[in-house]
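Fold these two proteins, one after the other.
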Amino acid sequence: MQFLSQLKEEGGIWYSPGTDVISYPEEGNSLCYQLEDKSYWFAHRNSCLSYLIKKYSNEGIFADVGGGNGFVSAMLQKNGHKVVLVEPGETGCLNAKKRGIENVVCARLEDIDWAEGELQNVGAFDVVEHIEDHEGFLNTIHAALAENGKLFITVPSFQYLWSKEDVDAGHYRRYTKQSMAELLSKTGFELIYDNYLFKSLHFPIYLMRTIPSKLGLRKNSPENSANEHGTEGGLMIRFINKMLKKELANVKSGKKYSLGSSLVVVAVKR
């Protein structure tokens, strides 16, 4: 991995000297680390990504950009991919090492002078919405990817689902299939797959997050996050898991959804 020559290794983590502030709450990785292993949301996203990455990815390095605590990287590493987690938050990097991620880089993607075509695959999983200049971010990914390199993205969907949750998380926007397709086209990518995920959560989010946020009634807390991610289980969580199991089967069978609280896309560098 040629890019490592620019970085300094300390405690098993590679550091870049030029990492700047990101639009993500400082405590975000710590909170997510407490939720991820017990959350139906993170589990379902990983299941869908595992299938899509196995189907569409190239051989070679897979850079998990903005990979946080390494929850996706751990799945990819377990599945035999050569993973490099690139994460600007040191807390996330330390947690990723605890998870056993072999290659952890504490940096933003743009802090590294990538050799042209050094990466065969890039994933940005719930990252792009945190980037104000999302077009510039995808241009940076495009330059680092090899010809016909693959890009995998998940983002929150539908701007009308905007809530205090988005504000507190440091989001700039939510996306639709059309807006993401236009962004990819502008930045030199060809869309090869898109779909909405978490259809069963679409209207509950509008009712329980969006409307209360508009009325000034929505308050977020670690306890609320734990409850919404179903870390304690319960009848409602069992029902949601049943719906998500069906959704995963439908994704694998090729079904496309017109609604959902998340959008997943796969694109190829052109």
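Now the second one:
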Amino acid sequence: MDKTNLSIGFFDTGVGGISVLKEAIKLLPKENFIYIGDSLNAPYGVKTPEEARKLTFNMVDKLISMNVKAIVVACNTATSIAIDELRKAYKQIPIIGMEPALKPAVENYGNGIIVIM
């Protein structure tokens, strides 16, 4: 399947992720985007980890049903409690979280030297 014309999906528990979306629009002006704000269940931080994880998977499932080519989890709580499980469950699609950029670099690079600029 040609994913060129598919959208990039964003989700947050409200409107905070819109600032992340705005930056993505600036950096990727030729891309299409879908944004879902789960304000009905916000904030995820007061939920049990199990509840927040289930809500996160529901939002990701919704975006996948919209046939997106990548997903940005623009919610710190959802990222911290579910990003690893999301990436394992949905290996066919890139899932980007709000964790510091250094974390995946360290995890994927091994025992080498990482330069931060």
